[in-house]
Amino acid sequence: MFPIHPECPDLRRLAGNRAEAVLRAEAMAVEAENAAERDRLRHLNDLEEAQQEGRGVTRRTFVTGAAATATALATTQFVSTRASFAATKTGTLIHVFLYGGLDGLAMVAPADDPVLAKVRPDQLIAENGAIPLQRGFRLTGAFAPLKKYLDAGQLGFVPAVTDPRLSLSHFQAADACNLGGLPGETGGRGWLDSLVDALGPGTAFRSVGVGNTLPRSLVGTNGAVALGSVGSFNLNGDQRFKDATAKAIRTLFTGINHPVQDAVQEGLKALSLAQKLAADGYEPAEGVEYQGIGYAFQQLAHLIKGGANVRVATIGMGGWDTHENQGTRGGYVYNHMGELARAMAAFFDDLGPAAADVTLMVSSEFGRRVSQNGSGTDHGHGGVVALLSGKKLAGNLLGRWEGLEKLDGGNVPEYNNMFNVYGAVAQGRFGLTNAEVDKIFPRQKYTPVKLFA
Question: Does pTM surpass 0.85?
Fold first, then answer.
């Protein structure tokens, strides 16, 4: 191994702890070794060119590199980011998951329905302030902040969405929704990670989960970034030595003729971009104000407008398990939906022209029963999926609907399979083929649902 120069400073002067100091010392040694090797190969190359020149052939390239040991710091923070080149599909799909079981009939429901009037008289969407939809449906007034997008054909709703594999357990149902099937069917791989296979290579930020941990939908083989904020994406350890550590990692993973090199370099590019975006700060578009769950949307707006090339992303919002005090006519669930609607509107307003390439899909692990239980509603099937898209939709009430005359054990019947809806959203956003969508959801034969115009 190429020795460290005798005049190399004491290890304690290289960093605040021995582990980082050794890393930097090793980087210095590798850098010196690489320089010597490059000089040697350059000399050999010059000799070869001189020999070949008489025969009209001149070689202008040479290969250099030295093996380096992958450090724990690098592998844990960068290897998962994958290589980055121009993505083959355009646009961004953001899955907003509402944990707890959204009462879809509190968001959109057929107006003046006799079944609803009989079994949930205190949990009906209030006519005053409600927004009329196609096919005789009514949208809660809590979504008034999105009215301009509804009028523009960019906001729509798919009712009666579920899958027979979902139970009424929050954990099991949310798991299946995020995986795109049961764990045994998917191998524990998230459906958004499977979707990334069809999108081609991208940046380290092509898969982003806003939060401290990745949701199951992003877990898999492509690598994803979990971040609470753009500024939180950083190297672990003493920040005084951040730049030196990044330089050491870059040196150690250069010219090693191994796929990990691309992963590390892309991780460092992502780190550099995140640091630049954080240093520049973020000022939303004029008139846009983020509050509550809106702060999560703001992080994605920061990345998208900053050129991070996000392809798929997730936001989680809790608080939808409304067994009591639901208050559809004003009260808790109405206010909670209002918070969500304001955040979605702020996000699209903030994106401006960039919103043309973005689709938001909002769903939950299941819905609620058709009948009220008093002041709330219990777990049930047949929820709703909401779409806000820069690409015009086929209508504002989408999918199949055949009424509530025949309930499924007290639940809204499955008129629209959940994974067909998920697949149709991805297909419409990215222009996928049916065969490509089939690969995303194992054991599910994809049947397209017309969602986009």
Answer: no
